[in-house]
Specification:
The longest helix is centred in the middle third of the chain and has 45 residues. It is built from 5 helices and no strands. Helix 2 packs parallel to helix 5. It is mainly alpha-helical.
């Protein structure tokens, strides 16, 4: 049976001939256990990290908002065109295949609109972007000397609440709940979804 170096050193304690005085000093940061750290000693999120996170979320909401708006207008204009073209084709007594094709395209576009509902997605992303943009602007109006950890935490909470509210509202719409959740600071990240 082999013993580990730790066990072998414990079996034969070393005796120092001269007592060595141990200097009393504050422990270094690497010597402090995580359990010994008080909340006051823990620094909160840094300003560049919070602002970078906000910018990332703003860019994502802007991308979804713009793409959904373009898709909404494309689908709506296609629906108008195919509906009007079907009426014109029937009025000028176009071949039945052409009229049926236009009518089928109009029905398809109507179904596409209901399934993907780009307008709802556009509205949700625009609301989230606006709410987050205003929170970042509010944070920017605070003098730099007053931008303490509490202000950064409030901004971080607003970012997470905005993302959580937008996701819950989108999910409610996908489940067919009809009404979106009201936006606001009352929504907490990690709260159970309705």
């Amino acid at each position: 049976m082999s013993t580990s170096p730790r066990e072998s050193s414990a079996a034969a304690p070393a005796v120092s001939p001269v007592p060595v005085p141990v200097p009393v000093s504050e422990p270094s940061a690497s010597e402090v256990s995580p359990a010994a750290v008080t909340p006051a000693a823990v620094s909160g999120p840094s300003e560049p990290a919070v602002l970078a996170y906000a910018d990332e979320q703003l860019a994502w909401f802007a991308r979804i908002r713009d793409r959904s708006r373009r898709m909404h207008w494309t689908v709506e204009l296609t629906a108008l065109f195919t509906g009007a073209a079907t009426v014109v084709a029937a009025g000028v007594q176009a071949p039945a295949a052409a009229t049926a094709s236009l009518a089928g395209a109009a029905v398809f576009v109507g179904g596409f609109r209901q399934v993907f509902n780009h307008n709802e997605r556009y509205v949700l992303a625009a609301e989230a972007w606006t709410r987050l943009h205003l929170a970042v602007r509010r944070y920017g109006t605070v003098p730099e000397a007053d931008r303490d950890e509490g202000a950064r935490r409030r901004l971080l909470e607003e970012i997470e609440a905005t993302a959580g509210t937008e996701l819950q509202s989108w999910a409610a719409g996908r489940r067919g709940a009809g009404a979106a959740l009201p936006p606001g600071p009352g929504t907490t990240p990690g709260a159970p979804m309705p």
